[in-house]
């Protein structure tokens, strides 16, 4: 009975999720404005840009798709390239799966549609401190909806006012998203295996950056995952723990 009384209410969890993702929202704001600005100077209509943000809700994929469309790439190329770039969401989903597996399908589909890099970082940081199933979905939902609305607002701002600032994308505002990703990654580096995986993926992403269709990014991520899995084997973990104890 005490556990039930002390459980946070859904509305409070929702508000906590929306609050905790505010720093990520600040980092995404310039990114959204730049996307909207690029749409106004490209082959798409303004409403196409807003529809893309509403339906796709994936910043990096939207930028890549916009560039490919401007270069008259085929639909198959646009679809395949954005699919490859967004395959990282499979890793995010696998990580969060134990915490949402008990939810009905309608909840899992909704949360999956709202999953982004920033939402994953905030939700996982919250859920990993409790056993799977102990926390409801409302924190995740609050973070996801807040980021979704934030992306729509700043996309619209870029679409409406981007034409007045034609060189906006050259001002270096996109570094805000780089800083956001750094803020996402650094708090997760709490063990040697995490650091090794991050360093491997980062170095190989630079080495493979000239690969077509962003395949280098996928290869770098795969290599990082392999390193992390190998270093997470129970035998190695116990050996390191014994070494620390001695």
Structure report:
By secondary structure, the protein is an all-alpha fold. The chain folds into 2 domains: 2-171, no CATH class; 189-246, no CATH class. 74% of the residues lie in helices and 0% in strands. The protein is built from 14 helices and no strands. The protein has helices spanning 2-6, 10-20, 22-40, 46-55, 59-70, 75-85, 88-100, 105-113, 117-127, 138-161, 175-185, 192-207, 215-231, 234-245. It starts with a helix and ends with a helix. The relative contact order is 0.15.
Which key features would you list for this structure?
single chain, 246 residues, mainly alpha, 2 domains, 14 helices, disordered N terminus, transmembrane helix
Give a nutshell description of this structure.
74% of the residues lie in helices and 0% in strands. With 246 residues, it is mainly alpha-helical.
Tell me the helix content: over 70%
Structurally, how many domains make up the residues?
Answer: 2
Average pLDDT for all residues = 82
- General shape: globular
Strand content: under 5%
Q: Sheet bearing the most strands, described?
A: none
How widely separated are the two ends? 44 Å
The tally of strands reads: 0
- The low-confidence parts are 1-5, 241-246
Helix vs. strand class: mainly alpha
N to C succession of SSEs: HHHHHHHHHHHHHH
**Rounded Rg:** 20 Å
Helix count from the secondary structure assignment: 14
> What is the chains' assembly state?
single chain
Topology of this structure?
Blueprint lengths: L1 H5 L3 H11 L1 H19 L5 H10 L3 H12 L4 H11 L2 H13 L4 H9 L3 H11 L10 H24 L13 H11 L6 H16 L7 H17 L2 H12 L1
GO biological process, one term: L-valine transmembrane transport
Subcellular location: Cell membrane
Membrane topology: Multi-pass membrane protein
